[in-house]
Design the sequence.
């Protein structure tokens, strides 16, 4: 069984389009995250939700909107895609809040987004 | 600003030992993580240090010195499957993980 799953794995689209990436975890975790990993391999936190509530919202364009219908799902919708949005997007989850600093994060397989 | 520094790439020989260093400057400190990321795959957890000293876990050990803002990951008895990127990440004062760019480790026979 896959612990953290993301769909789609690959996404190639035109500039200006709107797309969504879905994430689901079956670990029973309370906290979920979205990260962006750029071509230089830096992982940057975008959003974090705990029990469906937004707790971390980094400075990302408001074209990115996360939605958590329940604590097992955290989807990412992107409007008006731009060339610079091309990256790998990772979903992750942890048992509890980041304040429990030793919380290990479990990552999904990533979604490779290419904007043409 | 917040900064995590790691070497970009290292090469080692199968069966040998390699040490990957990480230095950090963050606003606050709430633990340091090491993750392994194989090419095209997701990061996976290796170790967590919050107190000074060495944590050993099989072939992998991780060391932390908070006063020096320094950690290293030690890999012993290297295997070809250890070829991967190793990411250092530090929890800052807001408990957010600040990630390094990772060290690409190449293992040669």
Sequence:
């Amino acid at each position: 069984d896959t612990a953290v799953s993301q769909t789609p794995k690959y996404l190639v689209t035109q500039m200006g389009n709107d797309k969504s990436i879905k994430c689901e975890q079956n670990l029973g975790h309370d906290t979920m995250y979205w990260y962006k990993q750029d071509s230089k391999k830096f992982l940057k936190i975008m959003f974090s939700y705990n029990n469906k509530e937004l707790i971390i919202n980094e400075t990302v364009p408001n074209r990115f909107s996360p939605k958590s219908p329940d604590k097992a799902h955290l989807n990412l919708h992107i409007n008006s895609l731009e060339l610079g949005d091309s990256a790998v997007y990772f979903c992750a989850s942890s048992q509890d809040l980041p304040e429990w600093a030793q919380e290990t994060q479990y990552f999904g397989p990533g979604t490779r987004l290419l904007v043409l | 600003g917040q900064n995590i520094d790691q070497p970009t790439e290292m090469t080692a020989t199968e069966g040998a030992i390699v040490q990957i260093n990480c230095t950090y400057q963050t606003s606050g400190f709430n633990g340091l993580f090491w993750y392994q990321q194989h090419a095209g795959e997701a990061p996976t957890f290796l170790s967590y240090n919050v107190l000074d000293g060495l944590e050993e876990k099989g072939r992998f050990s991780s060391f932390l010195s908070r006063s020096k803002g320094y950690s290293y990951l030690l890999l012993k008895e290297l295997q070809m499957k250890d070829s991967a990127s190793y990411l250092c990440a530090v929890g800052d004062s807001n408990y957010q993980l600040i990630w390094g760019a990772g060290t690409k480790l190449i293992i040669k026979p």
